[in-house]
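Revision sheet: structure tokens.
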Amino acid sequence: MTRNSSDVIIIGGGFVGLTLAALLCRNGITCTVVELQKDTKKDIKNTTDPRVLALSVATAQILTSIGIWQMLPKDKIGQFKEMYVWDKNSKGEIHFNSADICQPVMGYIVAQSLIQDLLSSSIDGLAGVSIVQGCSIASYTADDNHVNVQLTDGSQLTAQLLVGADGAKSTARQVAGIEYTVHDYHQQAVTCIVKTAQPHGEIARQRFLDNGPLAFLPMADPYTSSIVWSTNPEHALELKSMTTDEFNSELQSAFENQLGAVMESGPRSDFPLTRAQAQCYCSDRFALIGDAAHNVHPLAGLGANLGILDAASLSEVIVDARNKRRNIASRSVLRRYERWRKGENYQIMMILEGFKYLFENQGDVVRNLRRFALSTANALPYLKRQIMLRAMGVEGDIPNIVRESIN
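Predicted:
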């Protein structure tokens, strides 16, 4: 049974997949989004979600272009105007301030469920977008004109282009037979929401410890932060098994009492740390975006932002091809997207890799090098400016939708 046809089929109804659907739909390109999970909408005003997203200025601009950022309750958006990074072992430190580059903020902290629910509600009201829930892709075939997708519920979809946006364990990528090389860091990230005795002052803080970085990300409430503690699996298990009082004390000590006592902490969760890159981002009438195409260390909180840049870049390439009356799913069109984003993502991946190993190595020579590097960078305004602009997503080979918003 053929359920429907559209211009683009997107496998995955998460943050990145829905953003792509909204971008395409607003340019007159119809989409079908296939989501494995059934709809479980929450009350976005009353939901407290321990999972947060660190969103760049570029991501905020992209979400603004599809009408989502304006819908976010202002009292639910955390922001950071400064970032302070220091190293336990070398005593080196670096401080970033958005005022130094004449920008109001460096980035935002928002609950993942809040963004997801707003996107889902917005997509529901868009003509040109269809949602198929409770199933996934089983197989697909591509010919000169169409891609035909068989779903796990037995129904079929047809389109010009198929996009895999279904995360690191992407079924779409597996069905397409694209290799996904994963490097396991043998680390876990422990996350939770905490309240501290002192206000965070809209400063993102990160301290590098023996086993990895500990980050405090400022949320909308001045005394509430989301923490991401990267460490070895044994220590992560120990942290998760602690009582609340034990964990709060351990966290406060590891963070050098930067925000005073840790007064409260919510449920703790953890996830493995890896980096990964798909062998290719496209094949016949098929493209990958987001974690289905790549995965990076959460060191700088860039993962979700890279995925949104993928979505904006692929949308730009597709719309440009359509406007020039070209086949939106031709190999040359998709290769333009792949060359653009694969190189950008790999560059970020290797920069984060370098930082990770630079701060993990505790040898005297490397420790002294860290102190020198941080002190030197902290004293060079131009270098700090370039680092900030790149982290904000407004520098480099960026999509026009972002470039136009900053000019």
